[in-house]
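Quick entry, no commentary yet.
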Amino acid sequence: MLEATYHSLDDLAEAIGLALNAPITIEDRNHRLLAYSTHTTDTDPARIATIIGRRVPESVIDQLWKDEVIQSLAAQDDPLVITARTSVGLNDRVAIAIKQDMEILGYIWSIARNTPFTSAELADLKTGATLAQRQLLAIDMQKKRQEEQTEQFFFELLHEEIPESEILKTFSKLHLAPPGISRLMVIRFPEAITPRLADRLRYLLTIQQTVRPLLYAYDTTDFILWISTNDRDIQNERVQFDSFIQSFRQLLAERFAYTDFVVSSSEVFTGVQSIPERYEEAGVVLRLKDAYPFELQNVTRYERLGLFQLLPVFSERLRRRTVRLEEIERLRAYDLKHTASLCETLEWFLHYDGNVKQVASHLHVHPNTILYRMRRIEEEAGIRMESLPERSLLYLYLKADRYLL
């Protein structure tokens, strides 16, 4: 029989382990290890990896989601018998979710024995979940207070320049290791982020092991992240970052049915300074992706914007009329007078680097129509595009009209 109270989760895990005569682990809602009982040789690779890493391996979590084990634990109040998943090092288990009303606070896991658990032992496991509830609530409240402090600090970093010494001092207080190679990221949703979505974003961020999250915050529709790979090789960093983005997108869609969002990131950087500038870079990516959804649909990283990086400055010059291309203005006048589309044709001809078939496919016309229009463009505006600088300037000029300052 379990007692009414225990001084710590370690004591509770040990007591449940004795009651069930089986190894026990207690985890928080994000599968980070909080406590575990002693065990003999009767264990498995998943438990060993969890204890060593202080968190459940990502491969185990992924398999349990795919097999709807996590969903089943959330849906019921009684212990759940789970068959082995040997491909991820998991032997037979019995587990129960620790809840406050319908909210998941954590989990208790037990490795199964050679003999089935009795109804009395399963009742002890359920009692253990009830006893763990109060301690997990206290841990949860402490984590939320810490998250509020770190979020406030992050907002200050995003909007004002803070001396490096002060930033590193706060990192030390928050028990954060200084970053290696980093990026600032923004995941933007079409509507305000709800507490439920915030919990799910935190969950996915915590269980992944591809990048190291330093700080994060929420700003209406935006989930803002500072992530680090601690890898000094920029090429490796890009591979890890792209892998993280791909995985994050997939998990948000598969586990929580969120597909309508846009991701952007700053240029890669080292150290802890110029954070407002990096935040602005991520914002530029978002604004450009909004203005040019087709052209930039596969672009996330600032450095991959290429020529589009120049559009905010170029658009400002157009607005102040400090730059003007008479050739393009003549084409626009022609289009207006004849209800034609020479400017549009030239824009996509430049975009596809002169590939007539691709331009025709994009505009849904015959290739001969494109060839005819290009002749008209040369005749009406004298545009021959004989050099890369000329083509680049024409392209910028045509695209700049769609960028709203």
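second:
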Amino acid sequence: MMRWIISAPLIIVTLVTASIAQPDPSKYRIEAVADEAGSKYFTHDPVWRGGDSAGSIDLGDGRVLWLFGDSVISANSNDSRMGTFVRNSVAIQKGYYLSGPVKYYWRNLSKGKQAFFSAPGVGWFWPGHGSIVRDRLIVFLLQLRSSKTGLGFEAVGWYVAIISNPADDPDKWNVRYVRGPNTFGQMAGSAAVLKDDKYLYAFGSDEPATHDAHLLRWSLHDVYLGKISKPEWWFNGQWVKRSSELPKPRPLFVGATEYSVHFDQNLEKFIQIQTFGFGEASIGLRMADRLEGPWSEPKIIYTPDYSGVKMPIAYSAKAHPELRGNGLFVTYNVNSLDLKHMLENQGIYFPRFIRVKIGPLAGPDEKDGKETVKTR
């Protein structure tokens, strides 16, 4: 299998010989608890009053980049949500603990507050995930437009933003947008992005219906130059280039628009985190020995507290392995399908944190069902 050793921000790959098997999460003790202090981390700014998604990228210099979707910018800096919605925003956290300072960024233009990432004629962008490649920052962006069906929007494509000076503050970034090729409904990079010493890998999902997850990759050299038109796909056991929609590769699993994948050094497993269900959803995980799978069946590890929320909806659960503290930090979003309630309820629409610990079972008498702690 492929053994991945994380040395931020690079993931080094060496080859070891092992049989390919599907891990079983029931063989591990998994504890997930609400992090009340962490859930207040993003609530203190008087102007930035909440946002979707909460993806994170270790910039490798003691800074963490946070990527948010639809964000609320207060009009009068008084903690109010009466202001402007921008389609995306970013933040820089200094240090790897949820006690470090955080600063938010969007575009202040002559026509008012605008999304941080935008390009003419594309509808709007919601950020996916990304990575540092050499001295450049690569961020995958989901392209959306309004729709009269579903929740009022639909994904129609994807881009990458290539930032040539990520060491500077975001308001000084030089951003180049490169449109992604036709990937037959797969929104590459809407979920996890990882790298080894040769390739950049992007997970996504088929939109808008199935959420089938596939894995694409590019050489680091090509990504660095913005040459993303010819990705390789993990196609039923091998890496290939696709030129047509049919035949279709088997999905790795049924995912979501957004989810995370990271390598756990202690377990020597890949961990995938996502929300399951619509509305009052739960959070679960899968495991794999290899990035390409096979992936285990999902295991539900946590159900949020929805008390006091009208028409609640939870989504975009993601792990943040670069954060340090007691356990693995996972965020998720709770929103309301009632817009008025969302604007008034300052207890929602900020990313919430849970902390997850995964380890071996205590002994042979410990059975599945006892190892998971759900905290409501």
